Amino acid sequence: MSLTLHGYWRSSAAYRVRLALGLKGLSYDSIAHDLRTGAQRTEAFRALQPQGLVPALETSDGVLIQSPAILEWIEERYTDPPLLPEDSAGRATVRAMAAIVACDIHPINNLRVLTHLREELHADEAAIRHWIGRWVTEGFDALETLIARHGAGYAYGDRPTLADCHILPQVYNAERFAVDLTPFPKLIAAANRLRERVPEAAPEAQGDAG
Known about the structure:
Elements: E1 4-7, H1 12-23, E2 29-32, H2 43-48, E3 56-59, E4 62-65, H3 67-77, H4 88-105, H5 111-119, H6 125-150, H7 162-176, H8 185-197
Parallel strand pairs: 1-2
Antiparallel strand pairs: 1-3, 3-4
């Protein structure tokens, strides 16, 4: 099956998908859309992704959008290695950990929100960093507790899951904006373990990085 990932090197949502594809050992083509220039808002791209957001994944089933849905599709279509636990309680916990990032941290720290803060509310970079740090810290506090409870090298158990695919890109964003991550040693250890396992998914390894 041919897969084409539409993304941007610094997009944490696209990074999630690259991690899952890498963990599954899947090959894919990449098409970059520079979010800084608004390439994601062109008519051609909106024909694929009506919101004008990355990522989008072209598959034989059609174009898939929204990274959590894309990750679930990858998990269902390519079952080995699994990125969800075998038991229902474990799967619910992993999905909850992923949702802390996808639903509670990322949406209020994404490019559209930061652009609004800068252009409409005239926030300076110190205020932007404070805003990002507040919401990352709040979410990471909860994740650190959950990882201490459920992790064994990764966020949940001893192998990577969809939770890790969400957490590492959020750590990358936090590092970009100099968020203090010292209170989250278990989370950072799990993220770094995945970073080392799938180096080809890293933002700086992408063809459009720069």
